[in-house]
Amino acid sequence: MGVAINLQQYLSELEPQGCQLVAVSKTKPNELVLEAYEAGHRDFGENKVQDLVAKYEALPKDINWHMIGHLQRNKVKYLAPFVHLIHGIDTIKLLVEVNKEAEKNDRIIPCLLQVHIAEEETKFGLNNEEIHELMNSDRLNELTHVNISGLMGMATYTEDTDQIRKEFKSLKVLFEEIKSQYSFPNVEMNILSMGMSGDYKIAIEEGSNMVRIGTAIFGARNTPQPLI
Ligand SMILES: *Cc1c(COP(=O)(O)O)cnc(C)c1O
């Protein structure tokens, strides 16, 4: 298998650009994750809580697990003890729940707000207005066990690179806006998570500092996965 080789190739491209790599291992067996782990990689992403927990339990404990998929409030408790970064916060209610479970575990959990930048209706996330609403919420100050570390977005699945670039650009603008407008102790805004196998180059050109790459490292997924 070429996982280690693929990984090295991406890291040598991404690291000089100051971009972090989340290797998306969803649907992939533990052996492939271990192959990447043994090559020195520590940051992996999953989009289902059940898979995230199963992999956490089976694999070395110094892996940084990223929850990149849609997260339901009733499942937060399962990942709160160990999750490294939650990429998909899309309601204040979810953030409140993460805060509650983080407190139980005596942790501060870093979170990214998911922004809806794509044309497709199906993708989760907040629009610009809703992001500002959330940032202006009175409750935000009370959420001492979460850290809003940045934004995450997914571009439209299209061949139209101008469209993709436009969407990433808009996310970067919002990111800078939020960063300069809000200063709370629990808002850090240093991660801009955008870019996947097909569009990470454009994402980095537009200011991404964290890409989430699956198929280009691990190969095509074993079971069909909706890109949500
Ligand atoms: C699956 C997934 C990725 C990785 O997609 P690839 O095209 O395999 O690189 C990135 N981000 C999210 C949110 C995903 O669900």
Alpha-carbon distance between the termini?
27 Å
The tally of helices reads 9
Helix residue percentage: 25-40%
Structural class: alpha/beta
Question: Could you tell me the mean pLDDT?
Answer: 95
What's the arrangement of strands in the largest beta sheet?
Answer: 7-6-5-4-3-2-1-8
Largest sheet: 8 strands, parallel
- Ions, cofactors and other bound molecules: pyridoxal-5'-phosphate
Strand content: 15-25%
**SSE string:** HEHEHEHEHEHEHEHEH
Q: State the low-pLDDT regions, or none.
A: none
Query: Outline, from the CA principal axes?
Result: globular
Oligomer state of the chains in this structure: single chain
What Rg do the Cα atoms give? 17 Å
In total, how many beta strands?
8
What does this structure look like?
With 228 residues, the chain is of the alpha/beta class. The chain is built from nine helices and eight strands. It has helices spanning 3-14, 30-38, 49-58, 76-79, 92-104, 128-136, 161-181, 200-205, 215-218, and strands spanning 20-24, 43-46, 64-67, 85-89, 109-115, 146-153, 187-194, 210-213. It has an eight-stranded parallel β-sheet with strand order 7-6-5-4-3-2-1-8. The protein is globular and about 50 Å long. The model has no long low-confidence stretch (mean pLDDT 95). Pyridoxal-5'-phosphate (PLP) binds next to strand 8 and helix 9.
